[in-house]
Amino acid sequence: MLLEINEETTGTGIVLLKLKGRLTLGREVQRLEDHINELKKNGTAKVVFDLGGVDFVDSAGLGMLTQCFANVNNAGGQFYLSSITDRVKQVLKFTRLDTILPIAANTEEACALIEGKSAAGA
Predict the structure, then answer these.
(1) What DSSP string runs through 33-63?
(2) Tally of structural domains, the chain
(3) pLDDT, tens digit (0-9, with 9 covering 90-100), for 64-76
């Protein structure tokens, strides 16, 4: 399945990227990179990747997620991964990227963390 990228923006300016499919070397990663570059050009500083629909990620996909995190972080923004499937979570643990990339249980929690609120108090 090709990667689907659906973008939503919250009322507080957080961009939610809902991904569905496989995040792998080739067109999928290139499309995501192009999308991120466009957001970067527009000055987007708060990004949440909803990975609930991602069933597979390879090293190129991991590299893209890491690059996105670094770009947003270096620009003074905030970045979270959310709604991660068990399969992708295993890959993040195996590569220890789960200790580097900020992860939230779901998009609501990620948005609350970006907005500086606790998920319980949101």
Answers:
(1) HHHHHHHHHTT--EEEEEEEEEEEE-HHHHH
(2) 1
(3) 999 999 989 998 9
